[in-house]
Amino acid sequence: MGSSCSSGQKDKDGKKKLKKGKGGTDPTPRGSNASNSSVYVYQKAATPPPAAEIPALSPPQSIPVYSEHTVVQKTDSLLASPTLPSQDTLPTFNEYPDHVRHLLLGNIKSSAPPLIKPRKIVLFLCADFADTVKERAVVVEQVIPKVRRSCAERGYELSIVDWELRDDTKGLGVQYLQRQTQHCHLVPVVFLNETLGQRSLPPKISPDLKQHLLETIKSQSEKELFTECYLLDENNSPPQYVLQNKGNEEDREKLLKILWPVWEDSELLETILDTFIQAVLSFDSQNDKNKCIWINRKFHGSQGSEAGALQKRLTALQSSLQSQVEENRKLQFSIRQAEDRSRGVETFLPEHAQYLDALSTKFHKVLNEIVDNIIDDAEKTSPDSGYLGMEKRLYHELNQQMKECKYRLKHFVGQTSQISKIEEYLKNDSKSPLIIHGPSGSGKSALAAKIVQKCSEKGEKTPIVFRFIGLTPDSATTEQVVRSICEQCCVLFGEHPSLASQNMLHLAKELPLLFNKVSPKRPLVVILDGIDQVQFYSSLSLAWVPANLAPHVKLILTLRDDCPQLSELKAFISEASSWLSMSSLTLADYKALEQCSLPLHAVVVAYEASEWSSWEQNQSLQGDVESQIVHVFKRLEEEFGSNTICKVMGYLTAAKHGLMDSEMVDLMSCDETLDPDQQKLTSLWIQIQNQLQFFLKTSLVGKLSVTHWGNWTFRSLAEQRYLGDEGLVSVSRFMVDYFQMYNRRKLDELPLHAHRSSGPIQCDFLFNADWLQAKVCGSDVYQLLEDLKMIESSPDVDLLREVIELSAYALSYDGSQLFSQIVARLPQPDANKYPRVASFYEMAKSNANSSNLMPLGLCLHSPGAREATPDTEIYFDSIHRIKGSITHMLTLAADKGIVNVVSIYEQKVVRTLVGVTQPRVAKMVDDHRALLLCNRELKLYDLETCSFEMKLKGVMNQKMPFYDLHDPLHVVSLSRNRMYVYMTNLTSGDCVATFKVGEDRFLNSLLVSANGKMCVCGDETQKPFPLLVWDMNSRKLVYDLRIPHHEFITRLAAITHDGHYVASVCKEVDDPSPNFIIVYDLQSGTLFKKWKPEVNTCSIAISSEGNCVITGLEDCTLLVWDLVTGACRFSLKGHCAPADHILMDDAGTVCVTFDSTGKDRSVRSWNILSGQVTAVFTPDSPIICCELSSDGRAVVLGLRGQREILTLLLCNRQSVDEAKQKNITPFGNPDNIGKVADVSEAG
């Protein structure tokens, strides 16, 4: 193909030789700027709609708005709009993963969503106690505390289970191992030396085997002992003889001596340690990554203590461990045996002491590596980065609610008449809520789950919003429940979730407005089970419940007969058809008890009956559910001791959200009235959990697994029996002492317990800057609001509460912006009226404790000044840097025809041009002249004098008006027909050179390096699309870059400042797999780097100064690639929607990202060298445009409804005033400050 370059009008530079590069291509480019780290945007062209057709809340869409470092998402729209869809354009959720869509729509019939493992690591020690006393002491006392602290700092619980190997707990221990393998990160630690330890009796034997053994045993006394120890339990299916645990140790040893020779070579031969190691190896082999640690100690010259079949079993186990455990996780030692061989390891022997030190060091290293790998892998695969604007907290809430609904539904039976009435309500035209009421334990929760299932049968057309109250912190209070369902409705009906972050007063107004958006195309069913079972610090009123629902909305509430809320509802819901009373189970229902665990009385009865053995006599059932539950408590007290059960139930019931396993064991070990042996306490707590497994729930609180009561009646009776008013205060004081240590969970629990025990909650917590910062970052802003509600009203408390309520959405998104939110909302508080808030405000403004994007003044809604009708107008469309200035920028308002020069540190306009025809894009020629794209023409303006200088000849292509600067005297632009690239003189306005590649070759992009030396265009005519590279100084086409069967997506491309490298997104022509990134070395024309992320790339930036390429992915992450090594430096997470804009400073060390679609309203600043987020800011209004100052110290935003720019300073432990004073400089001649010029007649 020929290439040509014309000088003046007709001079041709023909037949130039072309260097062939190794590369490939695709469509649509865009302009550049004079920054050292230049990122250019190429967006797929689309015909702009007429102004009248643009939605009222959308930014102008005539031509793409190009920020100098902007990279735009791969949509076909010219500028993505955060406009909320109408009922005719409801969100489809097709872009969501299937499991997320099913959760959002409440589709109970879908498959279970991916299991979210809690941040819990269980260290399970498997050892013969007698043989490993010293080794286990080293592990438990020297290593575990260090690793546990390290885990806590990273937000993980490390729980150690040093299981007591006994015949009667062997089966439970294996079950526990299996559960932990499925629901947490299990790390088995096997101590296997030269013995298998204590021999084991089988827990059950068949009648045939018992008869055979009786025939084998000769002694009558031995037969009698055997018969006494194994009793027939006909309740087993099939009937079996069960080992009794009531015999003494002497009888057990006798029985072992009797039976062991009989079955020594049979499959019944096993030791307790053998059983556990086999289970560990079985469970560990099912994991993707083997985590087992084997500690093996041998004595020199020892032949071991086992013989015969046991020695064979020991050898086989050691062989299995050798093959299955990774080499670096085998801690094997050989030491000299003490003279008294029965004593094992002796710490007074130097060699043995050195062995224990070596064990401690090596085990600590190996365990740290395993824990680090677990946490790193979990963070990489964790599905909590948000889904296209759906908040991660909502995802976790829906996940747990779906799991609970499926559990409740599993054993549903009966209630056919109630179901029929509910189905009739769902079909009729009633606009009143349906109230289902009944006594505790009457099956309301199971019925609610059945309703969800029935509604799901209608398909995805009807979303079901359901909550089981009290299951999670997000369903523990009225405020949290209403906020959560509002948030889900926002996603379902196209509103931004920030609407659901307000206080109860506004949520009560917002909920009916959301219901009004429901239409026949997407009707809505809302089901709230147990709405009366909220926490005491919650609002108890149901005044927020609409008496008259919007069309196509159905609301179903369940609550107890004896609750005060029932009377409140009756006051404004009078229709008889709106009330449904629960009926008792019929005789037919009770006959199905084996398949049914509901209602609650049947659950407890079935649980009690399942514990009976056929030989037990005088078992009775109680006549009501409360008495039956008390009977359960009494049986636990008999088995484990009344004091033990009193303490365990007290801790569990007093906890705000429940307790982690490690917390329960810690609390018991700190209690002077209980045995301090943690090994025994761990086993005890696991056994109690097993006994109450049908009545306890495990939920995620801040990704940590906590156990709490799963039934309100159980919790209420436990509180009455084990706490009372005085007991509650006493236990709370005890828990305050415990939670004072550093622990992420203290952020949740400590204020409540301090409040109960009359502690100084205001001073120590709510007005403590360090505590508040930790609370919103490590816990939750809505829990902070719950803390504030517990204390008495005062001017300080009321003001702080309103500020936190206004900032709730931002702080829920990222709590690190606490200080910047306070400064953005509060004027200087009156120290006399608000002494504590004033002190806190001064600390926030001085930014003494952290890095923040701090606003220069008030820019967000202030307390008492919330807007009734928000301003939704767009006052400017784009922001551009001014060459050579770090203190001033240029703003363009296309439809208004206004161009402003603004002082970003003073946040005021210093020059104004009005009457400019559709200013779309600006390129700075020098420090005061700007070349503007005005509709389809290029015009040069002097910003210093506010004057028009000239208009360049010709017009631009309507869909692809791409241009950039070659040098201060020449501009390079795509021709109107897209077949040429023109170089135009900025003095004369004439075209001085034309670049062309053959006939009928249509170009679709244009990139020019900031130094003006290299120009890169995409060619959409050739198949596959090539990249064409010109040397602008020699005016020659130097490379035609192609990759066979691939095409470049040139709207996602970027070139370095020096023109050495160009990066572009690329895809295979016939392959639907995710696109990938290529980098070309423009000095040699060779393919320099190629990276293929797991998902599509939607934005890209490159910097030779930072030696990196940054890509934004559709899964909301950002990847930083090293230009030198080709490795991925960092994976940056935090956005809840894809970041389609990437801005970089000149040095290539600071990066700012945001989502222009408005799904994620926040702007994030990153340190590219460390891979850490440096600051976050979430405004109240959608971001229309954004720019980063060339020195990386200021982020300038344009917000919907805001007439002025918003400047955020990246303050690193520096006050706003200090940063501001250093950067106030005039633009040009100070006499021209504030000058306004009408240039409508010019040009």
Automatic annotation (TrEMBL):
Bias type Polar residues, positions: 30-40
SUPFAM superfamilies: P-loop containing nucleoside triphosphate hydrolases (SSF52540), Quinoprotein alcohol dehydrogenase-like (SSF50998)
Any Pfam family hit: NACHT
Source organism superkingdom: Eukaryota
Alphabetized InterPro entries for the sequence: Intein_C, NACHT-WD_repeat, NACHT_NTPase, NWD1/2-like_WH, P-loop_NTPase, Quinoprotein_ADH-like_sf, WD40/YVTN_repeat-like_dom_sf, WD40_rpt
UniProt-listed CDD domains: AAA
Domain NACHT: 432-562
Keyword annotations: Repeat, WD repeat
Region Disordered, residue ranges: 1-42
PANTHER family found in the cross-reference section: BETA TRANSDUCIN-RELATED PROTEIN (PTHR19871), NACHT DOMAIN-CONTAINING PROTEIN (PTHR19871:SF45)
Protein name: NACHT domain-containing protein
Species whose genome carries this gene: Strigamia maritima
Lineage start: Eukaryota, Metazoa, Ecdysozoa, Arthropoda, Myriapoda
